[in-house]
Design brief:
By secondary structure, the chain is an all-alpha fold. The chain has a domain of 93 residues. Helices cover 64% and strands 0% of the residues. It is globular.
Length: 162
């Protein structure tokens, strides 16, 4: 009735590679965000730092949240194509739309910014939204382009199971 407990060594065998992969992914995203800031010519910190929320920081933070939702949904649609998102297509389309909105808004934040990090323009959030939006677009495109499995391939050769 209850699942068997895995041996203590098995948990460590899975946890360490996952933690290492998460750390490598975070480092890659940070490097890409820095590259976007350099390419947009807003990588120099502001002379005077503005603390607190500004309208552009709220805009950038909202777009980052949308991009992160797109990445999560795109990953779920790619990993589990027959789950809660209508056999993966709806999840892939949602990830594509969220990624596209995040890329456009992240680019707009960077395009209208007149200062670097700390200027209150939300440039770091815009760069993060741009990078995560591109990742969401890639995951959604991969999930949408995946070939569908027929019922016979899924082990449902009996028509009564359909």
């Amino acid at each position: 009735m209850y699942p068997k407990a895995s041996p203590p060594g098995k948990l460590m065998e899975r946890t360490f590679p996952l933690a290492l992969a998460a750390l490598a992914g975070a480092a890659l995203v940070a490097a890409l965000v820095h590259a976007v800031l350099v390419a947009a010519h807003v990588s120099e910190p502001a002379a005077t730092t503005i603390y607190g929320l500004t309208a552009r920081r709220i805009w950038a933070t909202t777009v980052v949240a949308l991009a992160l939702i797109g990445v999560v949904i795109g990953g779920m649609a790619l990993a589990r194509p027959a789950s809660r998102f209508g056999k993966g297509r709806l999840g892939a389309i949602v990830a594509l739309l969220a990624g596209l909105i995040a890329v456009v808004n992240g680019w707009l934040v960077l395009a209208i910014a007149n200062g670097g990090p700390g200027s209150g323009n939300g440039v770091v959030g815009g760069a993060v939204a741009l990078v995560l939006g591109l990742i969401a677009l890639a995951l959604g495109g991969l999930a949408l382009g995946r070939p569908r499995r027929s019922k016979e391939d899924a082990g449902m050769s009996d028509p009564r199971l359909a």
